[in-house]
Amino acid sequence: MNSIYEEAVNAIPFKARRGRLEADGSGNLHMDGVDLPELARQYGTPLFVFSERSLRANYRDMRRIFSRYFEKLEICFACKSNSLLAVLRTLREEGAWADVVSGGEYYKALKAGVPGERIVFNGNNKKREELKQAIENGSLINVDSIAELYMVHEAAEGLGTKAKISIRVNGDISPDIIAEFATAQKGSKFGVDLDGEAFSAYRYASQSPHMEVLGIHSHIGSQIEDSRYYRHAGERIMDFVGVLKKELGIELTYVNMGGGFGIPFDYLTQPDGLEAFASSIHSIIQSKVKEYGLKTPVLMIEPGASLAGTCAVTLMKVGTVKQREGKKLAALDGGGDTLLRATQGWYTYRALCANKMDQPEEEICDLVGPLCYEGDVLARGRRMCVLKENDILAFLDTGAYTTSLMNNYNGRPTAAAVMITESGDVKLIKRRQSLEDLISGEE
Ligand SMILES: Cc1ncc(COP(=O)(O)O)c(C=O)c1O
Predict the structure, then answer these.
(1) Ligand 1 pocket mutation, candidates 81, 87, 398, criterion most atoms within 8 A of CB
(2) Is the CB of 305 under 6 A from ligand 1?
(3) Which fold has domain 6-52+310-438?
(4) What is the mean pLDDT of residues 370-380?
(5) Spelled out in words, what is the top-level CATH class assigned to the domain 53-308?
(6) How far is residue 197's CA from residue 421's CA, in Å, rounded to a whole number?
(7) What are the residues whose beta carbons fall under 8 Å from the beta carbon of 148, sequence distance 6 or more?
(8) Can you tell me the distance from the alpha carbon of 379 to that of 10, in angstroms, rounded to the nearest whole number?
(9) Using one digit for the tens of pLDDT, what is the confidence trace for 389-415?
(10) Domain boundaries, the chain
C-alpha cells in the first residue's frame, strides 16, 4: 500500500541531528558517535540499533513538559509499542509505569522490574486468570466491557479482596488518522459507550464491595498530529465525570487520556508537539474541574510511539538490484518480517544509505523486502543515491511497533537488536534468532 507521506519524504531533505545522527567525513552515518555500517558488519543485518540516550531524553522531555501543566502525573509506557526488556527497564528506571495488554506483556513488565502496583492492565478480552493475577498484584485494571466488570467482581470476590479499576470509555471521537489507528469511534471494539452503558457500568462498579473505582480511561487512537482531538475527548469525558459526581457521588482519582501522540517524523511539516498535547488536555480538564467542583485528578497518559519511535534505527543490507518500469528496485534482507507497519502503509520511514551519505541522491528507487508477497515493499519511489549490493540502508525512527511485531514469515529468523548505552558502549539486547529457534516447540 502506498503511504500518503512518500512524497513528503522526498520533498523534505534529511537534516542531521547533531551528536545523535550525523555523517562522518568518509560518508558513514553515525548514531550517538557509533559508526552504523561498522555495526552492521559486526552484528549482521537486519539490525535494530537503539539509543539509550534518546530513549531517556524522550521520557524526560515528556515528563518535563506535562509536569508544567499537571502537578499530579503518571506516564505509563505502552509496552505493545516496544516490549524489549532493555527498553522496559530503562523506562522503569526513569519512573514510568507500564501499560500492558496481555499476560505476556504483564510477565515482561514484571521481569523488567516494574512493580505490580505500577502496571495498568488494558485490552478488550482479558482472561480470567490474567485478571486474577492483576488483582493479586494490586494493578489498575482498565475494564473494557460490562462482561469484564462481572468477571473482575467475581475474581476479586474469590480472592476476598478489592480490585482497583478504571473503565475504558468510547466517546465517539474521530481523529484525522488512518482507520486502523482510530480506537474510539462509534462501533469500535474498545470500551463502553459514553452515551450508552458507561453510566450503568460505573453504578454497578461503585456498588460492588469488591471494586475500588479509581478512574476513567480513554485512548482515541495513534499517530495523532492534531492536539484538538484530545480536547474533544477530554470534554466528553469530563462532562461524564461531572455526572458521576453529581448522580453517583463518585470522585475519581485518575483521568487517563491514553497514548497516541504522533512520532515526530522529520518529514512532517506541522505536527503538534508535546507542549500542544499537554496544554489541550490541561485546559479542558481544568475548566471542567472548576465547572463541576471536582478534585483535580491525577493525569495518566499511555504513550508508546512518542517515547520509543525516534530512539532506534534499523539497518538492512542491499542484495539484488533490478530495473523495472523506469525505476530501480533494491531488494533488502528485511521486509514485512522486520518493519511490518511500513509494508502496511501505516508508518513511513526515511531511509538513508548509511555508507554513502556523501553521495548525491540521483535515482528513484523502490525498497523491497525479501518476502514472497507483492506487498512486501518498505518504500516506494524514493530518491536515493546509486544503490549496489552490500550497501547498508538505515531506516530512521523505527523504535516503536517494530521489534514487538517481528515475525518468522518465509522461515526468516528475526533480527537482532543492540543498544548504544549512555556511556557509548554497544550492548546486544536481543540476539538474532537461530534456525533452531524456528522449530522450537514443534514436534
Ligand atoms: C490502550 C492503549 N493505550 C496506549 C496505546 C499507545 O499508543 P501510541 O503508541 O500511539 O502512543 C495504545 C496503542 O494501541 C493503546 O491501545
Answers:
(1) 81
(2) yes
(3) Lyase, Ornithine Decarboxylase; Chain A, domain 1 (2.40.37)
(4) 97
(5) alpha beta
(6) 48
(7) 126, 131
(8) 11
(9) 999 999 999 999 999 999 999 999 999
(10) 6-52+310-438, 53-308
